[in-house]
Amino acid sequence: MKFLLLFLFFCASLCAQEAAKPSGEPLQPVDRQAVALQSLAALIDQLDTEIVELNKKRRIETDSAERTRIATELDTKLKELNLLRIEFVSVAANINPGDIAGEDDEEISLKGELDALLQPVVRELKEITSAPREVEQLRTKINSLTEKKINGEKIVDSLAARRETTTNKILRAQLQASLTNWQEKTLGFSRRLEVLEHRLTELDSREISVVDSLSRIFQKFFRSRGLHLIIALTAFVLIFYLTRKGYAIFRRVSPLHRKKARSFSVRLLDLTFYSLSFILGLIAAILVLYLANDWLLLTLVILFIIGSLWVSKQALPNVFEQAKLMLNLGCVREGERVIYQGLPWLIEKIHLYTELKNPALEGGVCRLPIKDLLGLRSREYQHEPWFPSSKGDWVLLSGEIYGKVIQQTPEHIELVKLGGSRKFIPTADFLGLNPENLSKNFRVRSTFGIDYQHQPASTTEVPGILETKLKEGLSKIIGTENIKNISVQFSAAGASSLDYDVLADFSGEAASKYNMIRRTIQRISVEVCNEQGWIIPFTQITVHQADPPK
Q: Residues 13, 157: one domain?
């Protein structure tokens, strides 16, 4: 974005320069130029005469105050004469007065004295606005001279009328002197006005079309500053790329970098080199501009660097922390475990782009800019799982959602439920549902009750009989090898039944039949009750009627 602004700045600059510079050929008709030259010649002759008269007066004047006034007036007339001569040459040769007057030698100031570093920029800004400033100055002078000419003509008419009606010789002589003086002034205003109008017409005639202006802009830009800028950028990119590429080759052959664990000295060497590669590229770009004597671009680059450093002073603490991370001295270190976006990751390598890895996830490699590690904390780990499930495992989420994991990535977990429907769950949400992995062995718990009339056998015969029948029935469905343990225990004497807890442990191979096992346990329990004649009670409500009043 900043380079685009600079490019537009140079385009505007070059456009102004092209518009301001003359073509070297007369743009006005010869008669108008001759009239302007004649007016200038008359003004120069008049000033020469006035300067001669002032010199005579100064030589014969005895009063010191009057001599000082005459000297001041003489100095003013000499400066004006010098300017008129410069303008005479400018009109005759059809060039800018500034090219003759040597405005480039003027002291450049911006709100006082500026540092020498800013002089090329200020000079360029003055050159950009030279044409519009000159036009505006000419119009201001023309308006002022027009007003003075109109006032002078009024004064001449008034003095002439007064002189004709006056009979006093002394007053008539004074009026004649004043009239002659104002006639000369008015004539000077007219001649000066002709010169300025010619100059304004000449500047207006130099306007070029937008297409021609853009064509000249690009031609000159790519011949001078544009070419310098492209070469400087190319030098920066080449030096930066070649040094990085060379260092990459060095890392492949360096015995220090072949070790799996990078030492502090290796990290420090990497950090130092990456900083130097940028600095060397910047020096190369500055050197190109220096050798090309393009002081404007060089000044802007230096100002850009200074401004960037000044703006980035707020970011220095973050830069320091990032440097500590690259040296493996920060709160996040290589080979440790870190939680990022709710998932555990192994920090493989800390660099400008840090690699995080989760071996339990498909595509479980994450590349982060080093600034994203700020604020994280890592820790050492000991044989900890990287995810509660693996592809192919059967899981139970929040005791409700039951399915088989067929894909798990850092973004989502895909489950296939019984019946074939599929459910997609964001990975972070999946962990929030407290997943229970059934493929690593699981337990099914079921509650069953019989009537109180079987109370004598409730703690002796019933548990053993029910346990045996459950083992026999479940073995036919999932196989004896998948049954870890089955236990039937008296749980409690309920309000209307004697309750038992059925605790059945199975291997993970039977996880796909989790729901079937729960239903089978209830079915076998009912069948045993039918065989043994045990009554299964239902909840009863007993209503006691109060005795009638006597």
A: yes
Question: Does residue 485 share a domain with residue 363?
Answer: no
Place of tokens 């549902």: 433
Looking at residue 228, its amino acid is H
Q: Are residues 264 and 191 in the same domain?
A: no
Residue 16 structure tokens: 């102004």
Number of domains observed in the structure of the chain: 5
- Regarding whether 232 and 208 lie in a shared domain, the answer is no
Rounded to the nearest angstrom, the gap between the alpha carbon of residue 134 and the centroid of all alpha carbons in its chain is 40
Name the residue among 287, 382, 379, 269 with its Cα closest to residue 326.
269
Residue type, 95: I
Question: CA nearest 267: which of 328, 217, 196, 319?
Answer: 328
Q: Are the C-beta atoms of 241 and 250 separated by less than 8 Å? A: no
- 111-128 pLDDT, tens digit per residue, is 444 455 455 555 555 655
| Token pair recorded at residue 341 | 């976006």
Shared domain for 176 and 141, answered yes or no, is: yes
Supply the pTM of this predicted model.
0.49
36: its two tokens? 């302007």
- % of the chain at pLDDT higher than 70: 75
What residue type is assigned to position 133 of the chain?
R
